[in-house]
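User: Structure tokens for this complex, please. No commentary.
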Amino acid sequence: MSDDHDHAQDHPHIHRSPPRPDQDDTLTYYRAMEAAVRELLIEKKILTAADVRRQVESMDGRNPSGGARMVARAWRDPEYRRRMLSDGSQAAREVGLDVGPLKLVVVENTPSVHNVIVCTLCSCYPRMLLGLPPDWYKSRNYRSRVVREPRAVLGEFGTEIPSDVQIRVHDSTADMRYLVLPRRPEGTDALSEADLAKLVTRDSMIGVAVIDQN
Amino acid sequence: MADGIAFLFNVGDRVRVRSAFPIGHVRTPYYVRGKYGMVERVCGAFPNPEELAYARRGLPAQPLYRVRFLQCEVWPDYAGQPFDVLEVDIYQHWLEAEDVQ
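Assistant:
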């Protein structure tokens, strides 16, 4: 930093400081491999750039509203709730979600059980229903700690689980994907399915939060 | 039966995760190896991901189970409640009946 004037004058001025370094991503090994494979597929006319872009846009375009629709319907329709708990994938298709071969297991929060989802091995997540996972879900901190000290981790999310409630941590290590059916807030009997869906947050379907009671 | 592999366990069975430490792509978390649990549900049979990872076919498909563990048995210093549990998807080739040592 240059210091070519007398600070005792106390005049308004701007110091020149080193610019913050750019936060550009680096070209890692796997990024280089992705670019090489993508360019080869396009060059050999197996895919077009538009195909790749469409797929990326489709993945980026997913959000938690799909899961929220399922939760809202389960709150209003006990028969749907029963089907959802026995076959989550079929219940997702029932509300018009294209989940492909996804094997979905829905776990239900009750007054005596609180469920929370993690993938300790990588970052498996029901993207078809919730969109892309938040960065913290993929962090080593969350993945390694929520299986070992779930009450402490939930506390860091502002979620205090009473000591008489069982915590069930679900580590999705294989072909199944998990979605939490949160508890329905009190005082919402009159709400429509669409209005109920607006109350359902992403974090409540991962299980790191509960839905605020009205 | 699934492609020739019989399902060895049923819901409610007590099982032990093999205490094995192979190299390579492994789908059974380290922290449950050697631990006892209970089959919570039978998930079906799936091509073995530990084979798929090496571009093999993963067949015959492996039965997959949801196994429930008591947190206080997985982590001796667990600070939560004694009834808190952990559930993990585990393929059959990683499980043995409780009395097998």
